[in-house]
Amino acid sequence: MLGQTITAGVLVAFILYIDRFFEPIRDLSRRYDSLQSTMIGWERIMGLLDTPVEVQDAPQARELPVIQGEVTFEHVSFHYSDDPAPILSDIDLHIRPGETVALVGETGAGKTTMVKLLSRFHDPTEGCILVDGHDLCSVTQASLRRQMGVVLQDPFLFNGTVAENIRFGRLAATDAEVETAAKAVGAHDFIVNLRKGYETSVEEGGVMLSVGQRQLLSFARALLADPRILILDEATSSVDTQTEQIIQKALARLLKGRTSFVIAHRLSTITNADRIVVIHDGRIIEQGTHTELLENQGMYYNLYQTGFQE
């Protein structure tokens, strides 16, 4: 161009043609990377779908009738199929209808495994679990879980409105019932301050809400479902002290009249339980009220001294 052999327009056109020539090559490379990632994801999905279901209904399984909430663990032991080391060993426990039981112990003691067995995510390797005298292995899983509620440490919210996520506990609930449940657990005040109130979209996983707000919605969902057996697995560990004070009042109503299992590390969550069961290395070593266990000065007393004091 400087020698006036070609014009500036020809030079620019040449450079652009070269760029256009390599563009599909670069695009093909990007698509190959996407294809590789897709194939790996596909293999994982198919592997999950091909995984055999360990817990299945018995051929003659019957529907569990409406229960009162009596739960009995009879010589229950459990270990995973790929690991013979026992998780629970010879658990004997009887819970009366409407009783609130706090499960306490060090991490890995077997607290969560007990409620997993009660929810029938696994079957005991020895012994049996009875609900109102019905062996869980003899009833359908759907009829059992319809009468159970679970609130986890990290609740999951679906991509939808606040009202839809609360109504997930009982799909036939009216708007008034959803609002009543939210008021009961102290969630109504922050909901009405959202951009669209109960019709505000929370997006996948509830990213639009704080951890404490998500937890309050999970309480409202459980209350609306009105389960006969309620499981709280570290349900207040992710909330701040101020929010915990709000939901402690809601817990009193949520637990009233229901058989409840509470797994917690906060003293305020378990001191009001009807009974505290201390688990160590998969065995029950103590049980009683908060006062009784402190007087015994056993393992619960040591846990209280080291970790529970606030």
Describe this entry's structure for a reader.
The protein has 11 helices and 10 strands. The longest helix has 42 residues. It has a 6-stranded mixed β-sheet, sandwiched between helices. A 4-stranded antiparallel β-sheet has the order 2-1-4-5, covered by helices on one side. The chain has 2 domains: 51 residues; 238 residues, Rossmann fold. It has 310 residues and is of the alpha/beta class. Helices cover 41% and strands 18% of the residues.
List descriptors.
Rossmann fold, elongated, six-stranded mixed β-sheet, four-stranded antiparallel β-sheet, about 40% helix, about 300 residues, alpha/beta
Average pLDDT over all residues: 86
Count of helical regions: 11
Q: Any idea what the CATH architecture of the largest domain is?
A: 3-Layer(aba) Sandwich
Uncertain stretches of 5 or more adjacent residues: none
> How many strands in all?
10
| Structural class designation | alpha/beta
Whole-number tally of structural domains:
2
The arrangement of helices and strands along the chain is HEEEHEEHEHHHHEHEHEEHH
**The top level CATH class name of the largest domain:** Alpha Beta
Alpha carbon gap, first and last residue: 81 Å
The helicity comes to 40-55%
- CA radius of gyration is 27 Å
The major pleated sheet works out as: 6 strands, mixed
CATH superfamily of the largest domain: P-loop containing nucleotide triphosphate hydrolases
Using the alpha-carbon principal axes, give the shape: elongated
